[in-house]
Design goal:
five-stranded parallel sheet; binds flavin-adenine dinucleotide; 21 helices; 3 domains; 7 strands; two-stranded antiparallel ribbon; globular; DNA Cyclobutane Dipyrimidine Photolyase, subunit A, domain 3; Rossmann fold; binds iron/sulfur cluster; Serine Threonine Protein Phosphatase 5, Tetratricopeptide repeat
């Protein structure tokens, strides 16, 4: 009897574990566009279109390679609407009595598969550099799980940027070279844009009809949707943007949505690129003198360091991780996150490009939308829901640790040793947003004062019990104490007034 080989929308890799374990001569591949997955949160239309188009093209390739693929399109009349439903339907159809799947990157789906009334073999997803076992062994017995030490293990394991047992150039990390403000001249023009082929066009029509009302602009749709296009995007990045990636990794510029970022997470996370291949291409660019060491090392650290590390934390911490709320914050997500007009130029720019591109780069996510939500006391569950919906690269294993942990400190400090909060001065230094903003970044209180300046202190005072003793935050509290009492009073009152406006749904 055949077995059902489940391939999910983010498992579009020819060598994914379930396919490696399958027998082409007898097994049946199951792929399904289901309403449950597309709408358990209302995803950005570009994200749904990317996944469905890439799934359809991947299925066609499997068929060409001789696989029996049972593919369910979203509007097939027999579509049962869920992954378990489709597996059971296909089992009935083929007589299969067993399912082989690659472990999903989300506890919810793992639970659904484990509850299936058919035996399911869940294979570890080996498209990552660290296995669960390796990560858990690294984590065991450590008081603090700092990314940097894990990253060094991954450098040793992969041999990337290693000369013998020493890191290339003598240092593990060149981040001190990587915090330059936005440059005046930008010589990269963003990722390559692909014209939709007929398969993608059909998906775009479907998504427009079914999800056209969700937050996010569907057209123009320019993402690549197969492994060759993803490879072209990677090549273009290495050629044009990598050399300055390190220098301007933390910069933000109005009108330059991608700067020197790679925009490859959208391909990597659904399986169209392989993390080690990417890193080897980047190392090679350094070795042949095309990119400096700080760029190559900084980039490789994001992939074999941060990306692997957050995945390890997600699986180590368990299914309740995304719902943690260590700081007890409870405000509703402000309407500006859904595109309501705001006078804050930085927030407006980050949300606008998120709506248009289903993309924002790391510093926009962390220091604009993330920072503002944290300072304003927004419920981290709502923040998590927002990031999961709006970014084309958002899958829970990578989105939740970044949002709940790194950005909102809602895990109580597992990922971040202190909260990523800043006043407007940081945004002003790293971007040109403040130049055109209705608020004044130099102004600390009163009419027109930058909201980040007010909320920064409000946050620190609100959570003083927790952070007062943090050695890395002592300076902040000392600065606060040095302010005269009347001024501190004004700051807090102005912050309260601003929060009251937010709560009343007024334009801020
Ligand atoms: P580049 O800047 O070019 O970096 C290269 C690659 O490194 C990325 O493609 C990505 O694969 C990896 N990377 C970099 N930083 C991280 C990180 N912190 N965690 C994991 N991988 C990283 N990344 C996602 O892939 N999916 C998410 O849902 C996601 N949600 C985030 C939410 C918040 C609040 C924050 C602060 C960050 C989030 N990130 C997420 C991490 C990071 O912002 C994105 O990976 C990055 O912006 C993707 O764009 P890029 O490909 O141009 O990245
Ligand atoms: Fe953002 Fe404040 Fe600068 Fe305006 S002044 S762009 S709100 S940091």
């Amino acid at each position: 009897t055949p077995r059902l080989i489940l391939i999910l929308g983010d498992q579009l890799t020819q060598t994914v574990a379930a396919l490696k374990a399958a027998d082409k001569a007898r097994d049946v591949v199951v792929m399904a566009e289901v309403a449950d997955e597309a709408s358990y949160v209302q995803h950005h239309p570009k994200k749904i279109a990317l996944i469905f188009a890439a799934m359809r093209k991947f299925a066609a390739r499997l068929r060409e390679a001789g696989w029996d693929v049972r593919y369910t399109e979203l509007d097939d009349t027999e579509n049962s609407g869920s992954i378990p439903g489709e597996l059971l339907r296909r089992a009935g159809e083929t007589g299969a009595q067993r399912v082989i799947a690659t472990e999903p990157g989300e506890w919810r789906l793992i639970g659904l598969l484990n509850d299936l009334p058919l035996p399911v073999t869940l294979l570890e997803d080996d498209r990552f550099i660290a296995s669960h076992k390796e990560f858990d062994a690294w984590a065991k017995g450590r008081k603090a799980l700092r990314m940097e030490y894990f990253y060094r293990e991954m450098r040793r394991k992969t041999g990337l940027l290693m000369d013998g047992d020493q890191p290339t150039g003598g240092q593990w990390n060149y981040d001190h070279d990587n915090r330059k403000p936005a440059p005046g001249d930008i010589d990269a023009d963003g990722p390559p844009r692909f014209t939709p082929d007929p398969v993608t066009e059909e998906v775009l029509d479907l998504v427009e009809a079914r999800f056209g009302n969700s937050f996010g602009t569907l057209r123009p749709f320019w993402f690549g949707t197969d492994a060759e296009q993803a490879q072209q995007a990677l090549d273009a990045f290495v050629t044009h943007a990598l050399p300055r990636f390190g220098d301007y990794q933390d910069a933000m510029l109005a009108g330059h949505r991608f700067l020197y970022h790679s925009v490859i997470s959208v391909y990597l996370n659904i399986g169209l690129l392989d993390p080690l291949d990417i890193c080897r291409a980047v190392e090679d660019a350094y070795r042949r003198g095309h990119a400096p060491l700080n760029a190559a090392e900084g980039f490789i650290r994001q992939i074999i360091g941060w990306r692997e590390y957050v995945r390890g934390i997600y699986f180590l911490e368990g299914p309740d991780y995304p719902s943690r709320n260590a700081l007890g914050q409870s405000r509703d997500l402000p309407a500006a996150y859904w595109g309501a007009p705001t006078d804050m130029a930085c927030l407006s720019a980050a949300v606008e490009q998120t709506r248009d591109e289903a993309y924002a780069h790391h510093i926009q996510r962390l220091m604009v939308t993330g920072n503002f939500a944290l300072l304003a006391g927004v419920d981290p569950g709502q923040v998590h829901d927002w990031y999961l919906r709006v970014y084309a690269d958002a899958f829970e294993w990578v989105e939740a640790p970044n949002t709940v942990g790194m950005s909102q400190f809602a895990d109580g400090g597992i990922i971040a040793s202190k909260p990523y909060v800043s006043s407007g001065a940081y945004i002003d230094r790293m971007s040109d947003y403040c130049k055109t903003c209705a608020y004044s970044v130099k102004q600390k209180t009163g009419q027109g004062a930058c909201p980040f300046n007010l909320l920064y202190w409000h946050f620190l005072v609100r959570h003083r019990d927790r952070f007062d003793g943090n050695p890395r935050m002592g300076n902040m509290y000392r600065t606060w104490e040095r302010m005269d009492a009347a001024r501190r009073d004004t700051v807090l009152k102005d912050a309260e007034a601003f929060l009251a406006k937010l709560d009343a749904g007024q334009r801020v």
